Amino acid sequence: MAMQESVPWWRSAVVYQIYPAGFADSNGDGLGDLGGVLSRLNYLAALGIDAIWLTPFYPSPRADGGYDVADYCDVDPRQGTLADFDALVTEAGARQIRVIVDLVPNHCSDQHPLFQEALTAGPGSPARDRFLFRDGRGPGGTRPPNNWQSEFGGPAWTRVTEPGGAPGQWYLHLFDDSQPDWNWRNPAVRAYFEDIIRFWLDRGAAGLRVDVAHGLFKDADLADDAAPAPSHGPSGRYHQPELAGLYRSWRSILDSYPAGIYPGQRTAIGEAWYDDLSTVRRYLAGDGLPQVFNFGLIHTRWHAGGIPRMRSAVDASLAMLSGRESAMPWVLGSPDVPRPVTRFGMTDACAPLAPGANVDLAAGERRARAAVLLLLALPGSAYIYQGEELGLPDVLDLPPEARTDPIFRRSGGTVVGRDGCRVPLPWSGNAPPYGFSSGPVAASPGACPPQPSGWQHHTVAAQSADPGSTLNLYRAAVHLRRAHPALGEGTLAWLDGQPGTVCFARAPGFAFAANLGAYPAPMPAYRDVLLASGPLSRGQLPPDTAVWLATNPP
Ligand code: NOJ
Q1: What's the CA-to-centroid distance between 479 and ligand 1, angstroms?
Q2: What is the distance in A from the centroid of ligand 1 to the CA of 139?
Q3: Is 68's C-beta closer than 6 angstroms to any atom of ligand 1?
Q4: Please, are residues 201 and 257 in contact by the beta-carbon 8 Å criterion?
Q5: Average pLDDT score over residue span 125-143
Q6: CB within 8 A of 331, min separation 6: which ones?
Q7: In terms of pLDDT, which residue wins out, 310 or 26?
Q8: What is the pLDDT of residue 313?
Q9: Nearest in space to 37 (alpha carbons), one of 449, 436, 479, 447
Q10: Which of 149, 276, 370, 538 has its CA 20 to 30 A from that of 472?
Q11: Does residue 117 carry a catalytic annotation?
């Protein structure tokens, strides 16, 4: 049994999400890689983060940004080697940075050897039973086995051609047709993933981020969805009762691990989407997953009318978890949603994001700067997605041929998808690739979309030299948070403020205020301003601004 810390590191950790393909490219092929991450560790250390989470870097056709895994226990040769991963764990550890890897247990790539084996083994074989193959409905089995739709649009079933050449069974894929779902009711699948978990923990991973953590088990009968199709609440495809037991078994694996090269427990964080927050309690309860993401802020827009909802999201989460606040880390963005600068800058809060959407980037930037002070002042752990610290917006005008998201393809180009928030980071210089890569940013399968011109003021080099930059705001906030006894783990007390403001106190001696309204607002009583997201005017908090305050003890 690992030696237990009094407060596990992950309860107050600031974790930086790396989408390796777009982070830094060390071999000049245009696809970011582990060598690129290694080469930028000093940048990450200067940011002050506690851990990095690497999204998939495994061998993959990259039909879904690497979430179509062809081999769970290796590194894609275009992105490095296992020796690079080992070096990364060691070198990051030397800088007090832990490494979290992505576990993708709901589905694999159709190129995974076990899926290929299932295709050739034919109906009724043990190889097929590792996946969800079923006969079709209707004469000749020409209709899918049920009415489920894929998360990426279109039917969730694809028909195969049997080894003899005849049209055959259908397999389930909640996402792209190149991502067949595993059959989690088959014990062999469970054993297979236990080996994968141990493989990465043995190599020094500090934790696992669990993809589609709400979806592994499906209704045993695969019954039709009731109309209208469910969103993310309990249904035949999501939040099945067996999940809680599975996560308890994974927790006991995590807890059986020694500390490794840095002290403290191994963790796992579930990506579980929910309609009602209380649904995820079952995964955390009774020594289940240590953490599940709190998505209360990830879809928020910036407007005063949204404050009651924001406050009740925070209250609900704190009340549900009382005493375990950081079991649900906060997050503002990810490679799956529009970046905060763009989201908060949209002038029509209800419009879908698409080329031609009206975005006020200056307002978006001010609000995103204020929002990160909120993120880092809330009780518990927080996650930052690469590029947020540079104030990057989404690139909305990508040409269709540069878009690789299966959502774009499966919707026939009617939904732009997620490519706009996956453009590679700009490191230095005045033109693409801005130091991201020494080679051309190739349009190879799964490569990131091209960077735009005009990003020279977003580069790490330019922002490092500018004391007022978003990068320097992030650095100051993360370091202050680490040093301040009121921040990280703990509780909050709401303070009364002018309508349109969000204000709370944290003990000892800290207050937060943000102005989402249209007029300057007074600030809570304070002794000193610790950090502000923008200029303050004569003791007032201007619109789209947030502030961290030192307060006198009561
Ligand atoms: C969630 C990941 O964040 C997303 O990028 C991916 O497409 C889906 N899970 C499916 O794996």
Answers
A1: 30
A2: 35
A3: no
A4: yes
A5: 98
A6: 293, 294, 295, 297, 298, 375, 382, 383, 385
A7: 26
A8: 84
A9: 436
A10: 538
A11: no
